[in-house]
Amino acid sequence: TSVRKEHPAAKVVAVFGAPGDKAFERREVLPRVAAQFADYLIYTEEDPAHEDPRAIAEELAANTPADTPCEIIVDREQAIIRAFEVAGENDAVVCLLAKGDETRQHRGDSFPEVKSDLHIARECLGVAQDA
Q1: Are 120 and 103 in contact (CB under 8 A)?
Q2: Which end of the chain is more exposed for a tag (fewer CB within 10 A), N or C?
Q3: Distance in Å from the first CA to the final CA of the chain
Q4: pTM of the model
Q5: What is the pLDDT of residue 130?
């Protein structure tokens, strides 16, 4: 509600996923709640652990209200880049949800380093990275 209040005319694009191996109810609830506040949803990898990240994203998409456009891009970096493409250059807000400045992704039994959402957003916007 705060995004809509501050930017009432803006297109809102949200990027998120659901963690693997836990909180299965989120896969039903999150899309329904997000659809109330966002105009476009992009489902992506978010700490899939031992599950297939595409299967998680497909479950999210299946629970998205029919009148809310969404797409699946498993690669989180590519999903963020796509969000900025969808947002375009007009009044828009891109919400990168859940990972923020985290630089590790839980995949299987490992936690490989990845670019943070913040880092990728700065690249998309052409903003200098912090030293």
Answers
A1: no
A2: C
A3: 34
A4: 0.93
A5: 67
